[in-house]
Task: inverse folding
């Protein structure tokens, strides 16, 4: 028997996660980004991460075609940025500060950390694709993380 989708969402909402914005540049040199919390490390050697993107997401075609992407881990004061990249398609980068990473993907200003990844594998997973990337460059800064829990954003301090 399969669990009801609403019950499943409710249960998963009790798992607190960090908040990321995944960015990529498509083959026409257009920047794309999307707020994602389905992100995790996969391996230390080699350094691999994975991110899950819905087939209907505006970022999906760019992720399917790109050679590199970036994971921007948001800091506690970046809820507005998370909401902007989660909103229905607009020019999400308009007025947003970023630099171009070594791989060409946008690195958002003032993020807690970022990872620049070479796309290595795309695996079908239900209504999502699991994108695996090998981390080629990463940086961090001191700040608190932005957290998503039970449908809302929160901050924690340590």
Result:
């Amino acid at each position: 028997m399969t669990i009801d989708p609403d019950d499943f969402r409710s249960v998963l909402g009790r798992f607190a996660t960090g908040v990321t914005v995944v960015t990529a540049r498509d083959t026409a040199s257009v920047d794309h980004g999307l707020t994602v919390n389905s992100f995790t490390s996969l391996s230390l050697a080699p350094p691999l991460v994975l991110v899950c993107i819905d087939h209907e997401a505006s970022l999906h075609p760019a992720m399917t075609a790109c050679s590199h992407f970036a994971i921007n881990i948001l800091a506690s004061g970046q809820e507005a940025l998370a909401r902007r990249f989660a909103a229905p398609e607009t020019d999400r980068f308009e007025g947003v500060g970023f630099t171009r990473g070594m791989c060409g993907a946008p690195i958002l200003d003032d993020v807690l950390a970022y990872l620049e990844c070479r796309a290595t594998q795309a695996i079908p997973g239900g209504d999502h694709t699991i994108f695996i990337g090998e981390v080629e460059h990463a940086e961090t800064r001191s700040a608190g993380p932005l957290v998503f829990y039970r449908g809302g954003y929160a901050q924690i301090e340590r």
